[in-house]
TrEMBL record:
It is a multi-pass membrane protein. It is found in: Cell membrane. The chain crosses the membrane at residues 12-35, 55-75, 82-102, 108-129, 141-163, 169-191, 203-224, 230-250, 271-292, 330-353, 359-379, 400-422, 434-453. This is DHA2 family efflux MFS transporter permease subunit. Its main location: membrane. It holds the Pfam family MFS_1. The keyword Transmembrane helix applies. Residues 17-458 form the Major facilitator superfamily (MFS) profile domain. Keywords: Cell membrane, Membrane, Transmembrane, Transmembrane helix, Transport.
């Protein structure tokens, strides 16, 4: 009887495991964007200024940077199912405490707990996918998972604005609880508890690596929020360089470091990581910039500005059934180079949208943005993981998650910095056109990233086909 149960669980894992991972991806990406449009409401309710609420974002980001490197080791040591369920539980408890917060201090403490869970949810779920599926099925599976991540990212501002305008900001956190409980229930019944041999826990490496991530993240947050304290920034940059050096020296002497830099010798992993970073410098700030432009420059409400992002979500869904055939026909190299350039063109055109622009024109742009973003994320994620095996899957997956998280922070910080510089007239430009120049600057970053993908060969990723 036990063997039959185990066999049934294995069959369920083949068909339903991607759905568990998709739920985790959706929750994390939704939480990462839903807060942006609700921060003014939270600030007003708690009696703070909007700028004082920056710590809510910073606290969450720094905690992610600290705990993401742990995810792979914990999953291999204690099992993917066990750690995934713990991670989701921590996330929903953090969400509950966020909703119950009465001031900024209690909200920040709740965000720390929420971020600890978030730092492990997606990496562990995706690691289970890498262990479960052969390479020739990963493209289709990762394509499905990425869809939910994109939906969460795009739906976040819309949902955040709707809940804040029609109910209360508390619901942006409470909505995580039923979704999380569904994820835990499904994981218990479906997810295999994969375990792999791990060495002694590399505590010193974790300290060096995590503190280095925190240092560079703080630099980005300070710059992005318009607080250019040069002494502090230079000190943090020096600390980042010093900690990075310490980690490299430690890595060379350690048999099983927390982050194995030797994996960067895998060419597709290295190209995928670098391309993801540079591309997200351009498009990572859009979930922040678009609602901000629509509300502050065009006078739309939070609900309306959020709803205007929905066409990109719908186009994300529409293009997914064709994704595998697109990549099979053109190949990863051609898709990533051309699609990155097309994304940059969309950003340039968005820079010329005005309050008088017809809604239909704007919706068309959002549709193209959704299609190209969907293709980009699926292709970047899968090519990065394409040459990993059972021994390198955990470390490579952790590297990808770290780079994704950093690049999102980088993207938001770069977008915020560019906007503030253009608004302050530092470049002697018309401040009223700050959004236009910001979109053009981000487009340059995006188009530039296409050169990174040109280093791929035409046969790279062939094992996914």
């Amino acid at each position: 009887m036990l063997n039959n149960k185990e066999e049934k669980k294995e069959q369920n894992a083949v068909y339903l495991l991607p759905l568990v991972t998709a739920i985790a991806m959706f929750m994390q990406s939704l939480d990462g964007t839903i807060l942006n449009t609700s921060l003014p409401s939270i600030a007003k309710n708690m009696g703070y200024s909007a700028t004082e609420m920056d710590s809510v974002i910073v606290t969450y980001t720094l905690t992610l940077a600290m705990f993401i490197p742990l995810s792979g080791w914990l999953a291999d040591k204690f099992g993917t199912r066990t750690m995934f369920m713990i991670a989701v539980f921590l996330f929903i408890m953090g969400s509950l405490f966020c909703a119950l917060s009465v001031d900024l201090n209690t909200l920040n403490m709740a965000r720390v707990l929420q971020a600890v869970g978030a730092s492990m949810m997606v990496p562990i779920a995706r690691l289970a996918i890498l262990y479960q599926y052969p390479k020739n099925e990963l493209l289709k599976t990762m394509n499905f998972i990425t869809l939910f991540g994109l939906l969460g990212m795009v739906a976040g501002p819309s949902l955040g604005g709707f809940l804040s305008d029609n109910f209360s900001w508390h619901w942006i956190f409470l909505i995580n609880i039923p979704i999380g409980l569904i994820g835990i229930s499904m994981a218990y019944r479906i997810m295999p508890n994969f375990k792999h041999a791990v060495g002694r826990f590399d505590f010193r490496g974790l300290v060096y690596f995590s503190l280095a991530l925190i240092s560079i993240t703080l630099v980005l947050e300070l710059i992005g929020n318009g607080r250019p304290h040069m002494i502090v920034i230079l000190s943090l940059l020096f600390l980042f360089g010093l900690l990075s050096l310490f980690y490299y020296i430690h890595y060379k002497k350690t048999e099983k470091p927390i982050i194995d830099l030797h994996l960067l010798n895998i060419r597709t992993l290295k190209i995928g990581l670098m391309g993801s970073l540079i591309t997200r410098l351009g498009i990572g700030g859009l979930p922040l910039l678009l609602p901000l432009m629509l509300q502050t420059s065009f006078g739309y409400s939070a609900s309306v500005s959020g709803l205007l992002l929905l066409p990109s979500a719908l186009s994300n869904v529409a293009v997914k059934p064709f994704m595998v055939n697109i990549i099979k026909f053109f190949g990863y190299r051609t898709v990533l180079i051309s699609n990155t350039i097309l994304l940059g063109i969309v950003l340039i055109v968005l820079g010329f949208v005005t309050k008088e622009t017809p809604i239909g024109y704007y919706i068309l742009l959002m549709i193209f943005y959704g299609i190209f973003t969907s293709i980009q994320m699926s292709a970047m994620n899968t090519i990065t993981l394409s040459d990993l095996d059972q021994d390198t899957a955990s470390g490579g997956n952790t590297m990808l998650v770290i780079m994704q998280q950093l690049s999102v922070s980088f993207g938001v910080s770069v977008a915020s910095l560019a906007l503030s510089l253009f608004q302050d007239g530092i470049f002697n430009v018309d401040a009223s056109k700050a959004f236009q120049y910001t979109f053009i600057a981000l487009a340059v970053f995006t188009i530039f990233s296409s050169f990174t993908f040109s280093k791929l060969s035409k046969t790279d990723g062939g094992g996914y086909m």
